[in-house]
Amino acid sequence: MKSIDRTKPVLVTGGTGYLASWIVKQLLDDGLEVRTTVRNLAQKDKYAHLTALAVKSKGVLQFFEADLLKKGSFAEAMDGCELVIHTASPFKITGIKNAQKELVEPAMEGTRNVLDTVNATESVKRLVLTSSVAAIYGDAIDILKTEKGIFTEAYWNTTSSSEHQPYPYSKVQAEKLAWEMAEMQSRWDLVVINPGFIMGPSLTKRIDSTSVEIMIQLATGKFKTGAPSGDMSFVDVRDTAKAHILAGFTPNASGRHICTSADKSFLEMADVIRAEHPELPLPTKFVPKWLFSFIAPFIGFSRKYVKLNVGYDLRMDNSYIKKDLGMEFLPFGQTISDHFNQLVADGIIKKS
Ligand code: NAP
Questions:
Q1: Mutation test of ligand 1: which of 38, 39, 43 has the most ligand atoms closer than 8 Å to its C-beta?
Q2: What is the pTM of this model?
Q3: Number of neighbouring beta carbons within 10 Å of residue 59
C-alpha cells in the first residue's frame, strides 16, 4: 500500500503523445504540479497544446527533455516525484521496416532506462506503466485457448516475436521487464494499465498517432469495400487517462488492469459514424477473409497476421479495473462520435 502525496510533482513520460496529453490535462485540471518529458524541447509545436492547457488549468506544468534510448535522461524530471506515469513507447502496427530498432529496443531499453532512474530516485513510491492488452494476447485466435472464452489479467502474450506481431512483442517484453525490476526492491510499487484499442478525441491536430490514423482511414474510405471481421476491444482515451491517475493515487491499487469498455467490430465503429454522417464512404459489410488475405500485403499486413487475427472475436474481462480502481467507462458510441467530430472540427477530416 502506497499513499502518494498530491502536493508533490507527478512525472508523465512522453507528454506529446495522444494518451499522455490527456493524462497531463486531467492532472492539471485537478490542480497538480505536473512534469512531462519531450524528446526535443526545441520542437515547441509538438507540445504547444499542453502549454495552452496549463494556462487555463489550476495546475502547474514543466517540460523536460528526455529520450527513451538516452541513459539517465529522465533523472532531472523525476527528482522529487513520488508518482511516475510511464507511457512513452512507440505505437506502430504497419509500415515497420526494422521492428527491433523501431519498436522492441525503444520499448525495452526505454523501460529499463526509466526504471533504473526510478531505482536511483529516492522520492519515487509508485510507477504506473502503460502496457496494453497486447501484452495479454498476441493474435486474436488466442481467444480460442482461453478457459472461459474471455481474457483476464492472468493471461500473457506468448506468441509474438520481433518477426511476427512486433508491437505486441514490444509491449509484453517491456511489461515483463518492469515486473522483474519491481520485484527486486520494495521502496516503490508497480501498477500496470493494459488498455485496449484507444479511441476518442485527440487534444492535438497530430495525425501520426496510430489511433488517429485508423479513424481517418475509416472515415475517408480506405475500408469502403468492406471491413475486416472480428471484434476488437476498445476504450476511450479520456477513460484510459483517468485509469492511470486512479492507479497512481489509489493506495491499495495493485497488479495488471485490463482497461477496455466494449468489444466491437470495425463495422460497428462505422455504424456509429454513419448514423450522424450517412454521406461518408464507410464500410457496410465485412470483407471476406480470403479477399482480405489477398490484399493484405498491399496495405501493410502479412498473410499470417490475417490468418490468425481476422474473423476472431476478442473478449476482455474488465471487472478487475472496476473493482480495484472504481473505473466506469464512457459508452462506445460516444467515444467514436466524439473522436470523429474532433477530427472534423480540427479540419483534419473534410466532409463534402
Ligand atoms: P503516440 O501518440 O504515438 O505517443 C507515443 C509517445 O511516445 C510520444 O510522446 C512519443 O514521442 C513517445 N516516444 C516514442 N519513442 C520515444 C523515444 N525514443 N523517446 C522518448 N519518447 C518516445 O501513442 P499513444 O497511443 O499515445 O501511446 C501511448 C502509450 O499507450 C504507449 O505505451 C502505447 O504502447 C500504449 N497503448 C496505446 C494504445 C492505443 O490504442 N493508442 C493501446 C494500448 C496501449 P514523440 O511525440 O516525440 O514521437
A1: 39
A2: 0.97
A3: 18
Residue 3 lies in a domain: no
Which CATH number does the domain housing residue 306 bear? 3.40.50.720
Residue range 170-199: average pLDDT? 98
Which is the closest atom of ligand 1 to the Cα of 167? 34
117, 162, 166, 100: which is closest to 13 by C-alpha? 117
Q: Which domain holds residue 37?
A: 10-345
197 within ligand 1 shell (Cβ under 6 A) = yes
Residue whose CB lies within 8 A of the most ligand 1 atoms, among 21, 46, 89, for a mutation test:
89
User: Mutate which of 11, 13, 19, 85 to test ligand 1's pocket (most atoms within 8 Å of Cβ)?
Assistant: 19
Q: Is 88 in the pocket of ligand 1 (CB under 6 A)?
A: yes
pLDDT at residue 130, rounded to an integer: 98
Strand order across the beta sheet in which 126-130 lies: 60-65, 33-38, 10-13, 83-86, 126-130, 189-195, 255-259
**What pLDDT is recorded for position 352?**
63
Residue 138 lies in a domain: yes
Total domains present in the chain? 1
Residues 167-178 have pLDDT tens digits of 999 999 999 999
Q: What is the mean pLDDT of residues 28-57?
A: 97
Q: What is the CA radius of gyration of the chain?
A: 20
Which set of grid coordinates corresponds to residue 30?
A: 485537478
pLDDT tens string 252-295: 999 999 999 999 999 999 999 999 999 999 999 999 999 888 88
Q: Which atom of ligand 1 is nearest to the CA of 69?
A: 18
- Banded model confidence at residue 349, pLDDT cuts 50, 70, 90: confident
Give the ligand 1 atom nearest the CA of 19: 26
**Angle at the Cα of 158 (from 95 to 232), degrees rounded to 5?**
60
Task: With a cut of 90, say whether residue 212 has pLDDT above it.
Answer: no
Q: How many angstroms does the Cα of residue 300 sit away from the middle of ligand 1?
A: 20
Q: Which cell is 326 given?
A: 472504481
Element (H, E) at 300: none
Give residue 17 CA to ligand 1 midpoint distance, Å: 5
